[in-house]
Specification:
Elements (H helix, E strand, L loop, with lengths): L2 H15 L3 E6 L2 E6 L10 E5 L5
């Protein structure tokens, strides 16, 4: 997935699910997933999307 598509997808997931979503870089591009499901390398995290952050 391209970075632009992954950013839109991550924000949409965060708003819809009302959970913190992280955007990670993978060997195949980028991916978005809930932060509590990620147990990989923190160096791969690009951004965190939190709809409740001020």
């Amino acid at each position: 997935m391209s970075l632009e598509a992954a950013q839109r997808y991550a924000w949409n997931l965060a708003c819809t699910l009302k959970v913190i979503i992280i955007l990670i870089e993978t060997d195949d591009g980028y991916n978005a997933m809930p932060s509590d499901e990620y147990d990989g390398d923190v160096e791969r995290v690009i951004r965190e999307y939190d709809v409740y952050a001020s």
